[in-house]
Write the structure tokens for this entry.
Amino acid sequence: MIRINPHYQKLQANYLFADIARRVALFQQAHPQQSLIRLGIGDVTQPLPAACIAALHHATDEMANAASFRGYGPEQGYDFLRQAIAAHDFRARGAQVDADEVFVSDGAKSDTGNIQEIFAADVRVAIPDPVYPVYVDTNVMAGRTAAADADAGGRSPGFVYLDSTAANGYVPALPSEPVDLIYLCFPNNPTGATATREQLAAWVDYARQNRALILFDAAYEAFIRDPDLPHSIYEIPGAREVAIEFRSFSKTAGFTGLRCAYTVVPKECMAWDADGQRVPLHPLWMRRHTTKFNGVSYPVQRAAEAVYSVEGQQQVRALIDDYLANARTIRSAFESMGFACTGGENAPYVWIDTQRDAWAFFDLLLNRAGVVCTPGVGFGRCGQQHVRISAFNSAENVAEALQRIRQALQ
Ligand code: MLT
């Protein structure tokens, strides 16, 4: 008898953004005349930077020619892209990362979801709350938890939750019980909060002292404008031994529909086997990646490389500046309506304390304003009275959405 993986039965029925899409589709069926403004899922709206388009065209022409055609590439990415990433994203900021420590992939969602496979089933996992649901769901699928506990706000027994609230500036405190695998994301999805060098250094020290590992999701790094904030965990001394970092071209350069990201696994990064022997993670991830992934397409890797050209850098900065301007507008509009907000300064998300049930506020914005947001409770119990508003839309749509919201809340 073929049996299912029983851990899948512990998952919520739908993935958060699929659930929202379903509710929005039902609303649209019932109200076909209502124009919707989507400030929910963090999906970019602006076209790709011109430098990336030119690189895509050029690479496509190469594929049309027998002399320059390429079939399978290296699973971990072409050297031209890995070199560009290591030089521009890390060494230019004083962080030591070598090209062969970079694993190019189709998305940070896949990488942050897949990475847990290389760790033991019984590692103790620390999960911030609120959090990007992929970290939770993939560990549930792997059997690291019992079924979610409705009385505990849907939390899964087995995780160590790290509360991120207004009281701690949305940067969680170190755990009070031992943990092995720690997920951190800064600038944060969903709160938009950022972590200082000192705050990250405390986590690196914790991991070094406790033989733990940090999975650092820096998908929103390009939105950092405060010059004092670290962009990479490898700017923190000692992090190479205890941290894996995830980056994405999705939000940085508008690649959500093109798909390209990468993961850095430093060669010093270690875990332990059942006999207490140190095992380097770089060859383990290499083994997993080359077995289960066949590489990002050549034209897409050329487009990603173009992000690092002089024009590419200018175009990407302009793109992000526009989204950041939206984020500032959203935050100041909600603050002027009396809501406490965080984020939106070095991140494309504004996290709003609604002082009421998150799904009720979601429904209110959908029904009365035709605006889609993301209910904070979808990211965890600490998001129960919050919504996340995304800045990924045009300035015109953001202005229109805020006007409608103002009216709806009067
Ligand atoms: C989000 O809205 O949180 C993100 O778009 C989800 C993702 O990047 O997968």
